[in-house]
Amino acid sequence: MSLPEPLPALEIVELARIDGSDETLAITPRWFPMDRLAASIRCMGVVTPLHLQPAPAGKLRIAMGFRRYRAAREYGFRKVPALVWTRASDLQLFDCALAEKVTGPLHDLERARALVKLRAQFGVEEESLIDRYLPLLNAPPSRHRLRVLLRLGRLDEALQRAVHRSLDPETAFRLAAWRVAERELFLGLLKRYEPGRNRQRELFGLLDDLRSSERRRGSGGLDRVWQASGASEADEDAGTVRPLRFRRILDCLHRLRRPRLSRHQDRYRRLKGGLKIPPQIRLQVPPYFEGDQLSVSFSCRNQAEFRHLVGRLEEMGGRAELGRIFELL
Amino acid sequence: MVAYTPDKIYVERGVADSWITRNVLRRLPATPVEWLEDSRTLLSASRRAGPSLAAAKRSLVLARHKGRFFKDCPAGRSRGERNVCCNYFVVNYASNCHMECSYCYLQTHLNFPHLVVYANYPDLLQELEARFESHPSTPFRVGTGELADSLALDSLTRYSVPLVEFFSRYGNAILEFKTKSDCVENLMGLDHGGRTVVSWSINPRAVQESDEHRTASIERRLRAAERCVAEGYRVGFHLDPMIHYPGWQGDYEDLVDEIFRRLPSRSVAWISLGSLRLSAGLKAFMRSRFPRSGLPLGELVPVPDGKLRYFWPIRVRMYRSAVEWVRARSPRTPVYLCMERPGVWSKVFAQAPPDEKRLGRSLAVTAAR
Fold first, then answer.
1. In whole numbers, what is the pLDDT of chain B averaged over residues?
2. Is A128 near chain B, with CB under 8 Å?
3. Mean pLDDT confidence for A129-150
4. Which of A314, B234, B249, B266 is deepest in the core (most CB within 10 A)?
5. Which chain A residues have a beta carbon less than 8 Å from that of B311?
6. Radius of gyration (Cα) for chain B, nearest Å?
7. A209-221: per-residue pLDDT in tens?
8. What CATH code is carried by the domain that includes residue B120?
9. Is residue B36 part of a domain?
10. Residue B42 confidence (pLDDT) above 90
11. Percentage of chain A surpassing pLDDT 90?
């Protein structure tokens, strides 16, 4: 990773001479936020020199410092400090850029982009990516990890942006197989409701299963699922607060995905309602009705309340609804 | 079944002289062989290289089994509140399978992706001998089909031969080969003494064609069963995993009907029923490996043993129907459920689940009848 030339002298270079559109050696995607860097440059100017290389027509191209360059331009600076490398190869400079990058926090998308470039642009063999570059990028040296990162690096920008916001990469890989309009629907939901990873996976799992079922039947795709489940209506219900709307969307999709279970749950709710259970008594069926026991618990403040609740339990014990609840297990 | 021909054979030096090793090498003279001190070195290499499952299974490893061969069936681990166990034992003579059933749990269960056959079978027999002789009044039902298909590699290894002959000497043990293959050639002409049951995991043709890739067709499995019956073996069938799909009733009833039309009911030792069960990880794996399979799209819910299964009313309906179909054709053939909770047993059979030891004993006794 050493360079074939001594460190060049520090120069002050006109921004106009730099071709910022050449991103051959860029590691960080252009759209990554750079608020803190921009604020610092706005205040202090560019303090850390850019690393540049001669390019055709007397221009210079960037090896390191793409974001510094963009911030400098944005805030109207005309000159920046720079080191201009004349003999180092692209790969040597890229290696140096990586070595510099890993001194700070590195996002998986940056690792992924670096690996995709090393493989595609510089023709680095997979073995070398595993043995040399994954450790350099603070990643475990395994083929599995390499495959995941290469896959991440090959996702389109919309999905990468979603991963950068909060999308689970595994979900992103599967989402990549969806049609563009279907993807947009899902990503729009993530933007609107900002669910955590578990809820995200739940939502994706439901939509993916329902979409696949529709496609197997040859009766349309996600749009039909969205409309037929009632999720579309729930999504548009502006009168309901966002978390509840999201809950309703999931409920609608669950109903479509597991119709028998939903009917079972409805029946349980009706029967339980019919028992008119006081709030101190809690009746609980096993999750998904998969179990042989109904759980009953109650709490009370004194002996009189205890006797009252026991009386209510005894009364419940004779009700037909309770017998039917047991049949649901 | 699509016959297995590995691209490469790895042999541990410790089993170089094993009869199993010699059988394999004799049958695959053109396949490259690499000798190893310890096959565990392949594990770290495969972790690093991360070959696809299909690619890894192209290598056959002949190794020495370092642990115990004989174990309780894993279903027993979740017995009691979760599942009723049928008191079954397993012998892991091999691990992994070259066939490609979309729902196979081995895909995410094994941490070693190669196909391994444990060639030190004398150790296996010694272990069984010690067990059977120290518990002479305990009836043992022992299967070899937990981590591998019992017979799919038999044309290469001939593993079945010493096993069948060994079990024929024990009045308190029954050997069960469980397979989706039609590799029964080596069983012909053996002195089995009625102590071996050859059984098939079986599903309607539609399921076999869509989700049991590289396995023997249902026709070939039934033909193999007929051959075994003609040799005096008793046979078993595992309708497992039963799959719920439009038209399942007709297809499964036809299948049960065909079994009892083609085979005398007295030759059927047992029929077990089980339904599709997937871990969450396996479901995701299936979706990526077998994207055309509709199996993960069934109405599956998480159950207390950690797996996804059909919502219980679906399972009960499938099992009850299958029990009726079997009983209508062969009232005395034992039918039991595999890996099901007591509540489901009660609903299917309209009586409390049997005592586990008695269940195991009665299956062993019926098989030996």
1. 92
2. no
3. 93
4. B234
5. 258, 260-261, 264, 288-289
6. 20
7. 999 999 888 877 8
8. 3.80.30.30
9. no
10. no
11. 79
Closest CA–CA distance from residue A242 to any residue of chain B (Å) = 27
Would you say residue B345 lies in a domain? yes
Contact B60, B42 (CB under 8 A): no
Of A213, A264, A288, which is closest to B302 when you measure between CB atoms?
A: A288
First to last CA, chain A: 66
Domain for residue B15, yes or no?
no
Distance separating alpha carbons of residues A114 and A104, to the nearest angstrom: 15
Nearest to B175 by CA among B233, B228, B126: B233
CB atoms B303 and A213 under 8 Å: no
Q: What is the DSSP string of B259-312?
A: HHHHS-GGGEEEEEEEE-EE-HHHHHHHHHH-TT--GGGS-EEE-TTS-EEE-H
User: What's the Cα-to-Cα distance from B271 to each of A223, B240, B274, B322, B323, rounded to whole Å?
Assistant: 44, 10, 10, 10, 9
B192 CA to centre of own chain: 20
Count other C-beta atoms under 10 Å from residue B184's C-beta.
23
CA distance A195 to chain B (A): 21
* Domain hosting residue B172, numbered range: 63-368
What span, in angstroms and rounded, lies between the C-alpha atoms of B53 and B285?
A: 11
Q: What one-letter code names the amino acid at B295? A: L
* Nearest alpha-carbon partner for B282 in B269, B271, B274, B293: B293
- Is the CB of B45 inside 8 Å of chain A's CB atoms? no
Q: Is the pLDDT of residue B79 over 60?
A: no
Whether B19 is in a domain gets the answer no
**What are the pLDDT digits (tens) for A54-71?**
988 889 999 999 999 999
- A5-8 long-range Cβ contacts below 8 angstroms, 24+ apart: A5/A85, A5/A86, A5/A87, A5/A88, A7/A83, A8/A83, A8/A84, A8/A85, A8/A86
For residue B81, the model assigns a pLDDT of 59
For residue range B310-368, what is the model confidence (pLDDT) as tens digits? 999 999 999 999 999 999 999 999 999 998 988 999 999 988 887 777 788 778 877 76
Tokens of A274: 């019919």
Cβ of B50 and A261 within 8 Å?
no
Angle value at C-alpha B4, between B3 and B5, nearest 5 degrees = 120
Q: Which residue has the tokens 């020199």?
A: A49
Query: Domain count of chain B?
Result: 1
The pLDDT, as a whole number, for residue B76 is: 63
Separation of alpha carbons B48 and B44, rounded Å:
6
Look up the CATH number of domain A1-101. Answer: 3.90.1530.30
Instruction: Please report residues of A whose CB lies closer than 8 A to that of B342.
Output: 292
* Stronger pLDDT, A137 or B1, i.e. the higher one: A137
Is residue B30 classed exposed, middle or buried when 0-12, 13-18 and 19+ CB atoms within 10 A define those classes?
A: exposed
B24 band by pLDDT with thresholds 50, 70 and 90 = very high
Determine the 3-state secondary structure of A9 from DSSP.
coil
Give this complex's ipTM: 0.85
Residue B80 has pLDDT above 60, yes or no: no
Confidence category of residue B1, pLDDT binned at 50, 70, 90: confident
